[in-house]
């Protein structure tokens, strides 16, 4: 905890000094108003001692109260306000769990056995409030414009974040023009000097139709009959896609399944051919590339193995000759 004291003050001065004059607080945080006070050693030949110290919130309460802390009653208002100073020169106040109603001016007052003093040049606590988005009834689509506003009472510049990464924008409103799917993410903001996200997170979810749709096969596009094959349809889109698998049969297309993956055990006569998928959502549809699947008979494998064995035997016989 840092306390800042004023140097060079004469012992004959009555003074209350606050540092800084303005505090930008974040909801839920704890802040300290650093404060120092001074008074004469004597007044009318009488030694002065401090008998009572108190803090008030709001100009109407600066002199007569009610006070949020008073004398040694450190938790006069529950645990919200805590006097962390003393009765010598330190008059600092700590505010716990800052909320909206804590915004405003604060002043310190002390009473001695022969006079009192109130620091009228109060310190001001402003609350960094929140972040808002415009109320929209339709989903955000590519090409739309979205404005994000950082609501705050502080005079400091704003810092914006996307997925906790700092952005260059420093104004209180972030304008997302001609928005694209790349602008989707979690946005937040804070007073610039904090250098970290402090507001609640606003999710920007940009919807768009399917693109870059393709088909892949496992284990290979050339397989033996009786093998298990998986065809996978891939595409980029938001929201979730609907899938339809087709097999080209001459001049027509046969519908086969309605999920992203198509799995089957291949037969020689029924599964060779060309496959593609069609993906769609409420923003559009797109056909994938075409995949050619070739199924080979088991006799092909047997013939190939026999040829390799014959070749091997011929070589071996040649060496023995």
UniProtKB/TrEMBL annotation:
<dbReference type="InterPro" id="IPR013106">
    <property type="entry name" value="Ig_V-set"/>
</dbReference>
<dbReference type="InterPro" id="IPR036179">
    <property type="entry name" value="Ig-like_dom_sf"/>
</dbReference>
<dbReference type="Pfam" id="PF13895">
    <property type="entry name" value="Ig_2"/>
</dbReference>
<dbReference type="InterPro" id="IPR013783">
    <property type="entry name" value="Ig-like_fold"/>
</dbReference>
<feature type="domain" description="Ig-like">
    <location>
        <begin position="140"/>
        <end position="205"/>
    </location>
</feature>
<dbReference type="Pfam" id="PF13927">
    <property type="entry name" value="Ig_3"/>
</dbReference>
<dbReference type="InterPro" id="IPR007110">
    <property type="entry name" value="Ig-like_dom"/>
</dbReference>
<feature type="domain" description="Ig-like">
    <location>
        <begin position="210"/>
        <end position="292"/>
    </location>
</feature>
<protein>
    <recommendedName>
        <fullName>Ig-like domain-containing protein</fullName>
    </recommendedName>
</protein>
<dbReference type="Pfam" id="PF07686">
    <property type="entry name" value="V-set"/>
</dbReference>
<dbReference type="InterPro" id="IPR003598">
    <property type="entry name" value="Ig_sub2"/>
</dbReference>
<dbReference type="InterPro" id="IPR003599">
    <property type="entry name" value="Ig_sub"/>
</dbReference>
């Amino acid at each position: 905890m840092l306390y800042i004291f004023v140097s060079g003050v004469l012992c004959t001065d009555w003074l209350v000094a606050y540092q800084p004059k303005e505090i930008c607080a974040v909801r839920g945080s704890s802040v300290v108003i650093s404060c120092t006070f001074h008074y004469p050693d004597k007044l009318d030949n009488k030694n002065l001692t401090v008998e009572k110290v108190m803090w008030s919130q709001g100009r109407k309460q600066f002199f007569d109260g009610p006070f949020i802390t008073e004398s040694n009653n450190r938790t006069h208002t529950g645990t919200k306000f805590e006097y962390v100073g003393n009765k010598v020169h330190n008059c600092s106040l700590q505010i716990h769990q800052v909320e909206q109603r804590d915004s405003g001016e604060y002043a310190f007052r002390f009473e001695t056995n022969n006079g009192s003093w109130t620091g009228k040049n109060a310190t001001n606590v402003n609350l960094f409030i929140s972040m808002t988005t415009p109320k929209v009834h339709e989903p955000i689509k590519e090409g739309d414009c979205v404005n994000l506003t950082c609501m705050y009472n502080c005079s400091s510049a704003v810092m914006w974040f996307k997925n906790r990464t700092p952005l260059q924008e420093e104004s209180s409103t972030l304008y997302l023009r001609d928005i694209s799917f790349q602008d989707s993410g979690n946005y937040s903001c804070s007073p610039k000097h904090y250098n970290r996200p402090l507001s609640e997170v606003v999710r920007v979810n940009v919807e768009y139709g399917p693109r870059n749709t393709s088909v892949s096969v496992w284990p290979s596009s050339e397989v033996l009959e009786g093998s298990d094959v998986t065809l996978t349809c891939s595409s980029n889109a938001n929201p979730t896609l609907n899938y339809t698998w087709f097999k080209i049969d001459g001049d027509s297309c046969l519908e086969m399944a309605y999920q992203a993956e198509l799995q089957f055990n291949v037969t020689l006569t029924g599964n060779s051919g060309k496959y593609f998928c069609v993906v769609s959502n409420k923003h559009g549809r797109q056909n994938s590339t075409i995949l050619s699947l070739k199924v080979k008979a088991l006799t092909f494998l047997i013939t190939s193995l026999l040829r390799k064995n014959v070749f091997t035997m011929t070589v071996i016989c040649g060496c023995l000759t």
